[in-house]
Each structure stands twice: as structure tokens, then as C-alpha cells.
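pinned: reference chain
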Amino acid sequence: MDHYMNYFAHLTLARPTVPSKVGNLLGDFMRGVREPDLPEAVRLGLHNHRLVDRFTDHHPLVIESRALFSPQRRRFAGVALDVLFDHFLIRHWSRFHDTPLDQAIDKDYRLLRDGAALMPAPMRATTGRIVEHDWFGHYAELENVGRALDRIAARVRFANRFDGAIEDIERHHDRLEAVFLALYPALREHVDEQALEAPPADDGGVTAG
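pinned: its C-alpha cells
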């Protein structure tokens, strides 16, 4: 496993269709992509991705949470929280969703495979690794979060002391968990209220059969 952000949360907040799942991950792979050239349903998913990022990045609880990280890692805190919040979503899945977690993950993997032709090459490569190595299944364990963050830190193109972020997470684990449990329902409500994507039956004509 290598570069990883909050992909699972973005997929969970997407519609259950191929174009929506692709669009809701595409925000992290836009280099060289012309937004006007995207199919409408994919573009709407991209807009939903950005809505989720804006809400999360500017939420007061998230801003406060970044300050819990040690000074040398604070610039890395947003990335660390993205990965950690996917971990919490997986651990607390049944609190928020009726579909069993393994079924939800399997469906997302299937839709990502089916949507490969809609993806730019770097995204296609990453989603291929997500499915092949069951990234989401691994993120139930906090130690795997720490390993992922160290890998991401090692890929940063400037000298940094971001490694070891799991130390800050473990030190403030309960507080960060409480932030997620308050944030996620508010985020879901915000996505539902904004309703940027069309209903599933109209979302590009490709549904999750």
C-alpha cells in the first residue's frame, strides 16, 4: 500500500453508481484532466468531492484537531486526519450505515473496477492497487494507519519530520475519535442538503446492479 487519503469516506458519500464513484475520487487525480471534458455524471461527482473537502477542511472541529499534532508534524495534520477518519469510519461503520461493511467495501471495489475506463491513468493505477490489496480492509487496524502515514511522509518531496504521526494520534486518540463521531453525521447531512448529484436512477445511467 502506498499513497492513501480519505478515499473510503469519499466513496461512501458518493451515489451507488460507476460515474459517481469515479467522480468522487477524481478530485485527488486532476492533474492533466480537463474538467469540461468529463461526462456530466462524473463532473457532478467531482463537485461533490470538493464539497466534502471544503466542509471538512473548514469545520471548526477539524481546525482544532490539527493543533493537537506536534509542531514538526502540524503541516502534515490534514493528511493524517484524512487517513485517520477513514479508519474511524470503518471502525464505527455500523453506527451510521445498515449495509454490512464487507458488502459495502466489495461493492465499492466492483464499481471502481467497472469505472476504470473513465479514470486518468494515475487514478486507474491507484484504484487497481486499492482493490488488489484490499486497502480499506486493512484500515480497521490503527497500526496500519501509522504505517500508511509514514509511507506518505516518505513520499513528500521536501525534507520533513512528518514520520511518526501515529504518536500524536495515539496521544489524542479519544479526542480525535470524538471529533469524527460528531463530524461525520454533520458531513452526511450537508451532502444530502446540497444534493449536488442527480438521484441514482438518473446518474449517468450506470447503476450498481
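why pinned: The radius of gyration is 17 Å. The chain has one domain: 7-196.
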